[in-house]
Amino acid sequence: MMGDKVAIITAGGSGMGAAAARRLAADGFNIAVLSSSGKGEALAEELGGIGVTGSNQSAEDLERLVTRTMERWGRIDALVNSAGHGPRKGLLELTDEDWHKGIEVYFLNVVRAVRLVTPVMVGQKGGTIINISTAWAFEPSPMFPTSAVARAGLASFTKLFADQYAADNVRMNNVLPGWIDSLPATEERRQGVPMARYGKSEEIAATVAFLASDGAGYITGQNIRVDGGLMRSV
């Protein structure tokens, strides 16, 4: 049975975004999903929510989602920003266009959505924003150069946002997944994880759900690793 709370999930048609949508729905949230494929609309229909086919790189598509959400429920309690995949090449093989694309996919996707929902959350005196980032935001891997660089910027943005909006009871945190089962599995990667396994999308979703809960009401501006012990530096 749905409650009064409302969650928006971007890039939520599959993978960790879809798992987060399912978990939040199970926790009683009304769900609105943005996806570039029809999967988001199908998932939203299954969950009794709103689905919009569009891109989180489009301010117009995001505004359409937020508008429909407000028209139906009149509030937004949680925003979960997931993302697709940016360019992957050798570091100096990346063109200016590749870097710009990485910033669009991994950083501006969050900024655009946050601009839209923050006034709503401030007006209702509460809300939480959860960004699905990467375990490699602070210890970058050459496998994911545009992701690591853009999401290091996202970590700074998150701290700046938390400083500015904590007094309004609007929180922002990042979840940093390691190797998750929504990615192709390799034995080499699995052996590099102290827990000796890939994480599950449902485990990321559970972390998202905790951060969206009242129990996380005193947590903001944080980067929370969910990576089986892969990264252990401060």
TrEMBL record:
Domain of life where this protein originates: Bacteria
Entry similarity comment: Belongs to the short-chain dehydrogenases/reductases (SDR) family.
Pfam families per the UniProt record, alphabetical: adh_short_C2
Native source organism of the sequence: Azospirillum formosense
Protein name in the entry: SDR family oxidoreductase
